[in-house]
Amino acid sequence: MKRAAAALAALALCAYAPAMAQPTPSPTPGAKPQDTEQWKPVPPVVTPGATDAAPPSDAIVLFGGKDLSEWVSTKDHTPAQWQVKDGVIVVSKTAGNIETRRSFRNYQLHLEWRVPTDVTGSGQARGNSGLFLASTGPGDLGYELQILDSYKNETYVNGQAASLYKQAPPLVNAMRPPGQWQTYDVVWTAPTFDAAGKVKTPAKVTAFHNGVLVQNDFVMAGETLYIGKPYYKAYDRAPIKLQAHGDPSPPISFRNIWVRELP
Question: Which residue segment(s) compose the domain that 130 sits in?
């Protein structure tokens, strides 16, 4: 019986194999390698930075260690009132959120942030801030990539560091301990809208936290909200915003922020 069963299994496998096989396509008669070569348009030359974290030649430097000339207060668009100390930005929680003077559509962004060594609190009250990939209004309106101390600090997973707030937990927790610099590298594809304000194409986010992929071309359901379901509202271009969160822990810091506009 065992031999018969084995023979039947082998016969079935042989019968199934042709269906699995894919014929190798034959080249068109007379085809040449040159037929599938593309020569134009020639990609523009971009000179990379001295390190992967340094801005390339086509980047707009939003903070290079000197001043906040590229930033304004979100609430009234007056000059940003956060502190610049020893080449880094220190959040002023009483001054409120800040955002870029310029507005953007699609882009590649590099940003570095640090939770202080003496951070206190737990959950959402520990090193809380946010990177708003598009600021669509005052306060916390827009699309937020969460900033938080998520090193051995439990909270809801779609609110931990590198989450798209209340929409997508990070693929992994790549957090370094407090006192060490964290990096975000983000590709933001802005949503598009028709003349009536309806969504034509949704927003998408790819993000790396400390060089580790944490959001992989995630399709957003709308703006990120603290309460309620996400929804879209039409806009064209928007500033990038940094959050002055009201949690009682010591303020976090930022440095080396640059952006490359994309088609």
Answer: 64-262
